[in-house]
Amino acid sequence: MATPETILIYSYHNHPPFVTGSYKGLTYELAETLNKQAAGRYNFQVSIVPRSRLNYYLKNWIEGNCPEASCEQNWIVPWVNPKWGFIRGTRDNYLWHPLFTDSNVIVSLVTDSFIYNNPQSLKGRVLAGMRGHRYVGIDELVTSGEVTRIDGNRERDNIMKVLVNRVTATLLPASTMQYLLTNDKEIKAKAEQLKLADEKHQIYVRHLMLPETRTDLMQLIQAIPVQQLVNIELPK
User: What does pTM read for this prediction?
Assistant: First the structure.
């Protein structure tokens, strides 16, 4: 019997619901589902890496120099979007498989009069952001000094900053917020203190991204119902 080809599942999403513990979370469930479907043809292995390292690994793909013989083609990247900086060459040299629609939600205190309608709503306010993340329409206001931004390394920590009134608001994926409201005891207990804005900062579709040469992997992925690829409940 032929040795299965190792396919790396690169992901920089190291937070819930994608990673929820040691070898737990949607990324690991995805690997399990793909390995079951592969039936020995492929061996999908999770590799959690920072975005900067992922950019280094996929440098030639991102710059549009692939596919070439020197380009690694044994990888897939889940939970990403075509607009997130993976295409800097003259064309899109990937295959994309949609997984689910997510959004950035703005979270503040119920007792605060603050209401988010658009980035301009944050003027004069303090926002807890994620270190290294870019926020459309907000970064410009931070640069101009109209919004104060305090960065953290974990979405949960930023929510706690809201709860102790250190910041006006934070923004995070709806999928992450739902997981924390359901599974984090402290945040669940204080859920009534938190207000999720009706207006989303951004709405986007999370995809599986893979090399355009790997139509074999795409066929395997497309054969699996999306509900089996990703089992998730989002806020109403």
Answer: 0.92
Range of the domain at 62: 5-101+204-229
Asked if 35 and 97 sit in the same domain, the reply is yes
Let me know whether 153 and 87 are in one domain: no
Domain count across the chain? 2
Q: Which tens digit of pLDDT belongs to each residue from 143-195?
A: 999 999 999 999 999 999 999 999 999 999 999 999 999 999 999 999 999 99
Task: Go through 141-164 and write b for each residue having 16 or more CB atoms within 10 A of its CB, e for each that does not.
Answer: bbeeeebebeebeebbebbbbbee
Asked whether the predicted pLDDT for residue 235 surpasses 90, the reply is no
Report yes or no: 152 and 177 within 8 Å, Cβ to Cβ.
no
Cβ atoms within 10 Å of 173's Cβ, excluding its own: 24
Closest listed residue to residue 178, CA positions, set 187, 166, 167: 187
> Quick one: which of 102, 108, 110, 116 has its CA closest to 199?
116
Q: Which two tokens stand for residue 84?
A: 């997130």
Same-domain check for residues 114 and 67: no
- Specify the pLDDT at position 232: 83
Closest by Cα among 49, 44, 53 to 224: 44
